[in-house]
Amino acid sequence: MISSGGQAKWYLKENPVKLNGEVEDRRGKKIHPGDVLNLAGEEYEFISE
Prior knowledge:
With 49 residues, the chain is of the alpha+beta class. Helices cover 20% and strands 24% of the residues. InterPro entries: S4_RNA-bd_sf.
C-alpha cells in the first residue's frame, strides 16, 4: 500500500480516503480495532489478535 509518511502525505492530497465512513486526510491518525478504512476502492477492517 503506502510505505512512508511522505508517500502518505502525497496520497492523501490526491485520493479520497475514508475511515469509518468519514473522509480522513491526516497521515498520523491512529487506527483502532474495529475501524474500517476505505482506500483505493477497497475496504479494510482492522481487528485485534
